[in-house]
Amino acid sequence: MGTAMESTAAATQGAVGGDGAIGTAIGREARPSATTVAPYQRLANEDRGTGNESLADFLGLFSLGLGVAQVTMPGAIARLCGVDGDDGNTRALMRLLGAREISHGLAILTNQQPTKAVWSRVMGDVLDLALLGRALANPENDRGRTLFATANVLAVTALDVLAARGLARQPESPVRAGMDEGIIHTRRAITIRKPVEEVFAFWRDFTNLPRFMRHLESVTMRDERHSHWVAKAPAGRTVEWDAETTELVENELIAWRALDGSDVWNAGTVRFRPAPGGRGTEVRVDLEYDPPFGKLGSKVAMLVREEPGQQVQDDLRHLKQVLEIGEVVLSDASKHDHPHPANTY
């Protein structure tokens, strides 16, 4: 067995130029050039931020849950902290702390850039630790439970500081430029095994869009640049808007924006380019939209897969199916209560 592994290692080193080892990345001579990687790296840097957004959302949900528990069950939470849960003043204080936690959670979940809201949680943690310190000094309290509660608050404080510092280091990028105004930016892409000319022509005829966009009911062309869109909304409602094609480059780019007075403001671009290795067409969608209920509404929509970023990814998969096999493939998986588009790659 040792001989076989040594032979494999030697073969691997030879394949990557003789200076690598098992477990290393692609050898230097096989890596793409910096000029090839640069545009993809730029897109990644603009989108990914520092990766602390998900942690902030978790802390916001944690605040809401803890706050509701403190407000509705102040005595039980006080006893968990080793304090007398039947004392009226303690219960009142616990409800006050719960209201503060709820306000922190809402502030984090409703702000596109919740840096200040997360730092406010850190200040709340400091207050909690001070109160637990006073509880520890009281010999009438259950010190074991108070120490356990203190350890948990310290752990959450570390997460709060980590999230706040990470959010503070967010890079400036087009994705973040509109966040202070509540605008959400999403970017999705897919590769379709068809020529660029065919994919572009199909998308350019906007009346084709309802064939693969499941929330879109109709698109009516007003003239060469203007169109009217009707889409499905929750509770059996519909939303409508007029859009203007702001830029059109044959076989390369389509850009649009919703006009003033639209039910849902949105704008974006669709770019078409040959996929590497002659694998067809890479379609990249950049979408900006103003969610009706802000970031919180966007998070709720995400839970039921109604968030526009998720819809765009689903629609791109449908487009791939329509162009490659002629129709959207439906799958009856047990986790869905109705047939849904299958993933085809």
Which terms summarize this structure?
two-stranded antiparallel ribbon, 345 residues, alpha+beta, 11 helices, disordered C terminus, single chain
Polypeptide structure, described:
The chain is built from eleven helices and nine strands. α3 packs antiparallel against α7 (143-168), α5 (88-110) runs antiparallel to α6 and α6 runs antiparallel to α7 (143-168). The protein has three domains: 2-48, no CATH class; 53-168; 183-341, START domain (Alpha-D-Glucose-1,6-Bisphosphate, Chain A, domain 4, 2-Layer Sandwich). The chain has 345 residues and is α+β, with helices and mostly antiparallel strands. 49% of the residues lie in helices and 18% in strands. Strands 1-7-6-5-4-3-2 form a seven-stranded antiparallel β-sheet, with helices on one face. The protein has a two-stranded antiparallel sheet with strand order 8-9. The chain starts with a helix and ends with a strand.
Q: Helices, strands, pairings?
A:
Elements: H1 2-15, H2 34-48, H3 53-72, H4 74-80, H5 88-110, H6 115-137, H7 143-168, H8 174-177, E1 184-192, H9 196-204, E2 216-221, E3 226-232, E4 238-249, E5 253-258, E6 266-274, E7 281-289, H10 294-303, H11 308-325, E8 330-331, E9 340-341
Antiparallel strand pairs: 1-7, 2-3, 3-4, 4-5, 5-6, 6-7, 8-9
Task: Briefly characterize the structure.
It is built from 11 helices and 9 strands. By secondary structure, it is α+β, with helices and mostly antiparallel strands. A 7-stranded antiparallel sheet has the order 1-7-6-5-4-3-2, with helices on one face. The chain has a two-stranded antiparallel sheet with strand order 8-9.
